[in-house]
Amino acid sequence: MKPDIETIVQDILKDTPELALEAEAIRVLVSELVAKQPTVAVDEVFRARLRAQLVSAAVVPQEKRALLPWWLVYTVPVGLTALLLLVIQPPYATAPVIPTVPEATPSTLNTEAPEAVETGSYDAAPSMMRMETAPAMKVGGGDAMQTFETGLAEDAVEAVMPASVSEYFNAEFTPDGQAVRITHLSLAVPAFVTVSGPEGVVTVSGLFLPGEHASTLLPLSSGIRSGEVYTAVWYYDNGDEVYTEGFEALAVDWTGAPISMTFIAP
Amino acid sequence: MAMENEAVIVVRAQAGDSEAFGLLYDHYLDPIYRFIYYKVFSREVAEDLASDTFMKALKRLNSYNADRGRFNSWLYQIARNTVVDYYRTKKETVSIDDVFDLGHDERTPEQFDALAGLAKVEEYLRTLPARQREIITLRIWEGKSFDEIASILGGTEGSVKMAFSRSIRQLREVCGEAALLLFLSGATLPFAINSYYIHI
Questions:
Q1: How far is B103 from chain A (nearest CA, A)?
Q2: Do the Cβ atoms of B140 and A37 come within 8 Å?
Q3: Using CA atoms, how far apart are residues A186 and A66, in angstroms rounded to an integer?
């Protein structure tokens, strides 16, 4: 329900008492703003069509959710077996058990042992993150923007978002186009930044530790195309302090959207 | 839709009740559409982005956690990000804070005519940072509480309140004596022109 003009004016005067002398002018100002709200009507054909699409689409995901995803059917037993081997492995044994797991189950590595590592690593800021399933960004290849909505749900870490991304994360190309400058970055947990464009990933940062970072240069590993859109995204470290594509947790906001910054190549 | 009812409907929708999602859609289409329209000023684009918003909401519905915030705030955030993504695909470098400033390309020649008399309005409103303009829109036009605005835009309720008051004060200062004189003469404020195309 819309607040009445008097309520709005009283709110203003309460928060800004020095405006009391100009109360009448403020009242007129607010009245005009209220009166001149643009009249925007939704087209009824559009309304009905979209509703039908949504209602029919809503049925499909629920049917799918009733079954275990195919990759989970295979990877959970493998992961549990690996965990069991880790537990029963004698301290003197040197057989390389762990490396076989990521090769077999790249999309689910973080669902098992690494999660325990993350929990331990991020104790400093437990309220800042939560593991959950969310749409993930496919890092390699293809149009950088299209990749946001593609790919299987991967492990993603939800970050508490301040007013806007730009308040704690900004990136841009250097004028010569030879590097990306992370102009500022504010982190509560260890993370990597990757930059990708039409040709795939063009640079990956080293590990950023929690805290404030300013003006960090990331040299490009491949050439960029002038005028194309590039996107920088965060991945939280899975605990091994090394960025491995497909193995780090994508940082997302609470709507499930990746935390990212786009910019254009010079 | 009462809050208690909405919570129940959201849970039903998360459990796969498609008609429950339809009810959420019925309730939120108009405000979400307006929210988007004020940023793009194009019916076609607003329809596309509203569609994207609700499709994303449906896709991510199970990731919504009521303990983290209200459903409407969650939905507005998706709409906001959808608008930003729209400008990103247009290959414009954009900070989420600057979305308000990028709608000009969408205007038709007719709209430019209508805008001719609004130059002063825009001049006034552009004196405010984009976030403050967004707060004014959500508070005065959409009737959102400061608490709701804070959860949509980020920040605290107190900071949103202060920003709102500051915006009004700035507008008041920008309008200055002209506003008072017009008011005393019974006329309207300088920005009280056909505001259908106000780019706020």
A1: 15
A2: yes
A3: 39
Measured distance CA(A256)–CA(A240) in Å, rounded:
25
Count of A-B CB contacts under 8 Å: 190
Rg (CA), chain A: 25
Q: What is the DSSP string of B43-108?
A: HHHHHHHHHHHHHHHHHTGGG--GGGS-HHHHHHHHHHHHHHHHHHHTT----GGGGGGGGGGG--
Query: Rounded CA gap, A235 and A248, in Å?
Result: 6
Give the count of beta carbons closer than 10 Å to the beta carbon of residue B4: 8
Choose the mutation target among A14, A18, A32, A145 for the interface with B, i.e. most B CBs under 10 Å: A32
Contact at CB, B97 and A135, closer than 8 angstroms: no
Digit-coded pLDDT (tens) for B148-163? 888 888 888 888 888 8
Give, for A196, the enclosing helix (H) or strand (E): strand A191-197
The proportion of chain B whose per-residue pLDDT surpasses 90, expressed as a percent, equals 21
| Closest B-chain CA to A62 | B16
Contact present, A250 and A134 (Cβ < 8 Å): yes
Kindly state the helix (H) or strand (E) to which residue A80 belongs, with its residue range: helix A70-88
The Cα of B119 is separated from the nearest Cα of chain A by a number of Å equal to 16
Is this model's pTM higher than 0.80 or not? no
Residue in A254, A261, A264 to test binding to B, most B beta-carbons within 10 Å: A254
Residue of B nearest to A38 (CA): B196
Residues 82-121 of A with CB under 8 A from B: none
What span, in angstroms and rounded, lies between the C-alpha atoms of A164 and A161? 7
Could you give the C-alpha distances from B184 to A20, B177, B181, B188, in angstroms and in order?
Answer: 18, 10, 5, 9
Residue A43 contacts B where some CB pair is shorter than 8 Å: yes
pLDDT tens-digit map of A74-118: 666 677 777 777 766 655 444 444 333 333 333 333 333 333 333
Whole-angstrom distance, CA of residue B36 vs CA of residue B33:
5
